[in-house]
Amino acid sequence: MDLTDLAPLAFFEGPNGHHVAYRYLSGSRPALVFLPGYMSDMRGGKAQAVLAHAAAQGRACLLLDYSGCGQSEGTFAEGTLTRWRDEVVALIRALGLPRVILCGSSMGGWLMLLVAQTLPERVAALVGIAPAPDFTTWGLSAGQQEELADGHVIYEENPYGIELTPTHPGFWADGQDNRQLESPIDFEGPVRLLHGQRDDDVPWDVSLRLAAALRSADVQVTLIKDGDHRLSRAEDITLLLRTIDDLVVTAA
Fold first, then answer.
1. What mean pLDDT do residues 177-185 have?
2. Residue 163 pLDDT more than 90?
3. What residue numbers bound the domain in which 219 lies?
4. Which one of the listed residues 67, 72, 105, 106 is annotated catalytic?
């Protein structure tokens, strides 16, 4: 059966008034919630693999597009971590999901930390795929940050497409206000971090820094020596799904 039949496209009116696109598959709990990366959406290969795996196991799963991304309303230039966190939190509450496992890819790995700290009673575990917390600091030069602080949009080469990747001043300022790696992160549940050592976008030591910052004692970092940033090869997807399966047992 087509995944679109299993989890039809729906829209939720988010806290900022935009209609947020999502697909929800009902099933056993905890539900899997996939948080895509910067300028990405729920049509990506990892998100679809998680949904298909959940369907095969009869497990609940939620995919979504942040406002300004994918099929959701809004403009990307208005997007911030706080805005997108609030959309994810509101949708989890609206669907009545009592326990979830957050799977965050790249920027989604930053966002999952913010969601987990907002919904500590509902978030059972975290899976970070090349997580990128605080990239508004370590990912940008001092000159770029000065441009953003002055209200200018900066553009960078996009290794995954022909269009340049923008960073907007509002997103940067909000990111600076939501930095995670400079103090203990208040999450006590199990955490699994997957990171390729050939990642040209997010240095793999960011996962080690994140592991050190988390209060949880149950944190494991898996380094994939020949893995890139996307971790979208068949063997990478297999590792991700196996990691999720192990966490489902641990978090039950």
1. 98
2. no
3. 3-136+181-251
4. 106
Tokens 């919630």 map to which residue?
Answer: 33
Encoded tokens for 169: 């001043």
| Residue 147, in any domain of the structure | no
Is residue 19 flagged as an active site residue? no
Claim: this prediction has a pTM higher than 0.90: yes
What's residue 2's pLDDT?
Answer: 64
Arithmetic mean of pLDDT, 140-166 = 92
**Sign (positive or negative) of CA dihedral 225, 230, 234, 236:** positive
| Residue 154, in any domain of the structure | no
Which of 65, 86, 199, 236 is flagged as catalytic?
199
DSSP three-state, residue 11: strand
Burial zone of 136 (CB within 10 Å; 0-12 exposed, 13-18 middle, 19+ buried) = buried
Cβ partners under 8 Å of residue 30, min gap 6: 60, 99, 100, 101, 124, 125, 248, 251, 252
pLDDT digits (tens, 9 = 90+) for 10-24: 999 999 999 999 999
CATH code (residue 13): 3.40.50.1820
Report if residue 215 sits inside a domain: yes
- 160 has a pLDDT exceeding 80: no
Residue 66 lies in a domain: yes
* Catalytic status, residue 229: yes
pLDDT at position 252 over 90? no
Of 40, 53, 229, 236, which is the active-site residue? 229
Domain count, the chain: 1
